[in-house]
Amino acid sequence: MLNILNKIIVLFAGCFIAFSCSDPLDKSVVEPLEAKEIDRVVRKDKSFLATYSIVEEKWNYIHSAEDSARWSGITYNRLHNYLTTIDSPQLKSPLVTQLRERWEKMYNDHLVQADTIIKEWREYLYSHSADSLVKIEFDGIEVERIRNAQQQIDTLLKVKIKITPLKFAIDSLIANYNFTTASHHNGTVKNAPDDSIRINPLTINKKLKEPRSLKLYPDLPKDIKEKLIANDSTIVFNYTLFDIYAGGKSYITDSLLADMPKSVQTYLLAEKYAEDTAPVFDHKFYIENIIKELVNESFISQSAYIKINSEHYYREIDSLVFNFINYKGL
Predict the structure, then answer these.
(1) Which domains does the chain have, with CATH numbers?
(2) Residue-wise over 67-95: b if at least 16 C-beta within 10 A, else e?
(3) pLDDT tens digit sequence for 207-216
(4) Does the model's pTM come out above 0.90?
(5) What DSSP character marks residue 26?
């Protein structure tokens, strides 16, 4: 860092010489410039407008003779040269690079720990998801033909649905199911007639320890019913799991997310939102929050570290000007 500081001093001195002959810039910052003086300087260097706006903002905090005396030694030239120096690529680029490398060396193990934490909670989410706890499958049909009151033959269709707990006993389950043709299953459902798909409830309220086959009378469109009876291979069984309870705990995604530390939960939700809507996902921001909550509460973000440590070197250039720029009154 000493080499960078030496470069800063040389650069600052060079800037000062370049502007030292400009009369308006030799005035103290506690004295307003006339419009024609500002115009004269801006014609040579448009960036001076930003410098002058800083001075105007600081006048809001200069209310006494003591305040004026404190900053009277700073000329517009001195302030402008300082701002030009700290904003120059010759300073900023190597300084930021070195500070970023120093930060990465300090906190690389924290980043690794954060990645491990995310991986572990992803595995938890997957291994405890409803679909990983139970298997629901179509297990065939039973057909019964009966004579109705009009002496006509009605065909009653029962479907067998097999439910198998995969990891532990299940207290209750809420789902629904339907049957579609292969074309609907592959994405044309939204264009199908309203009557082409019927949703049927599937609920278990008794503890399920072993595989159980349920015989149900589903509500089916006529063509689906006929194809089921004919054992048509284009029929597809679909189901949606809404909730599973086991040991008094719900295993829907929202409940599983609630088990997580807040920073991890926020990370995973933001990541999922980014996948669905494709905005920019600020990975670094969420990782730093995880580190702050779960690894090291004294952790400082890379941007904050660079800002704080850059200011140390900016103060070395000209401490009085540095204090003036950061002055907010007493």
Answers:
(1) 2-87+305-325 (no CATH), 95-129+261-299 (no CATH), 130-250 (2.60.40)
(2) beebbeebbbbbbbbbbbbbeeeebeeeb
(3) 999 999 999 9
(4) no
(5) G
